[in-house]
């Protein structure tokens, strides 16, 4: 499973849509962002709370079509596997992983829609701190546009 985590992180892409700011003052919500430099790349992490547990540090990954949670985090948050499996792939290969349903979660103080997450043993992180999950485009695209400010350490999403 650590190999699958490496596959997902190998395609980690951070998206900065800074030209599309909020439509009006006060119309956006900010989430604290932690930026970690690793191997010449910047990884952006946000706090994610699941069913009142956490926060857990999730990497923003617009290149991932599905969000991922570490299996230890899934256990701590009481997530139950659905019995389904999801395909995952990266530059080194592909495989299938279990899926769990998340009914209540949020990034910072911003609620997220209920959804499904792939459950993977992300293993120990090397140099980037503890990666406890990936927040993928399946969740981030729900906002329409996001702004990642690496200098200020914020993820800005539009108000509902």
**Residue windows where pLDDT falls under 50 for at least 5 positions:** 1-24
Beta-strand proportion: over 45%
Largest sheet: 10 strands, mixed
The shape, in one word, is globular
Content-based structural category: mainly beta
Query: For the residues shown, what is the average pLDDT?
Result: 80
Distance between the termini: 36 Å
Please bin the fraction of helical residues: 10-25%
What is the N-to-C succession of helices and strands? HEEEEEHEEEEEEHEE
Tally of individual helices = 3
Radius of gyration: 15 Å
- The total count of strands amounts to 13
What does this structure look like?
- The protein has 160 residues and is mainly beta.
- The chain has helices at 2-10, 71-76, 137-140; strands at 28-32, 34-38, 41-50, 53-61, 68-70, 81-90, 93-102, 105-107, 110-112, 115-120, 133-136, 147-149, 154-158.
- Strands 2, 3, 4, 5, 6, 7, 8, 9, 10 and 11 form a ten-stranded mixed sheet that branches.
- The model is unreliable at 1-24 (pLDDT under 50).
Break the fold down into its secondary structure elements and pairings.
Elements: H1 2-10, E1 28-32, E2 34-38, E3 41-50, E4 53-61, E5 68-70, H2 71-76, E6 81-90, E7 93-102, E8 105-107, E9 110-112, E10 115-120, E11 133-136, H3 137-140, E12 147-149, E13 154-158
Parallel strand pairs: 4-11, 5-10
Antiparallel strand pairs: 1-13, 2-3, 3-4, 3-8, 5-11, 6-7, 7-10, 8-9, 12-13
């Amino acid at each position: 499973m650590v190999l699958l985590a490496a596959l997902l992180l190998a395609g980690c892409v951070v998206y900065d849509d800074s030209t599309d700011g909020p439509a009006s003052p006060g119309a956006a919500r900010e989430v604290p962002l932690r930026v970690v430099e690793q191997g010449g790349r910047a990884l952006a992490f946000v706090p994610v709370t699941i069913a009142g547990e956490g926060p857990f540090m999730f990497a923003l990954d617009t290149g991932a079509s599905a969000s991922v949670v570490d299996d230890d985090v899934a256990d701590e948050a009481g997530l139950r596997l659905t019995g389904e499996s999801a395909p995952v792939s990266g530059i080194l290969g592909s495989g299938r992983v279990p899926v769990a349903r998340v009914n209540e979660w949020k990034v910072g103080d911003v609620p997220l829609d209920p959804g499904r997450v792939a459950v993977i043993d992300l293993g120990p992180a090397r140099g980037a701190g503890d990666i406890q999950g990936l927040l993928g485009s399946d969740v981030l695209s729900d906002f329409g546009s996001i702004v990642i400010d690496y200098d200020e350490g914020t993820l800005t999403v539009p108000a509902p």
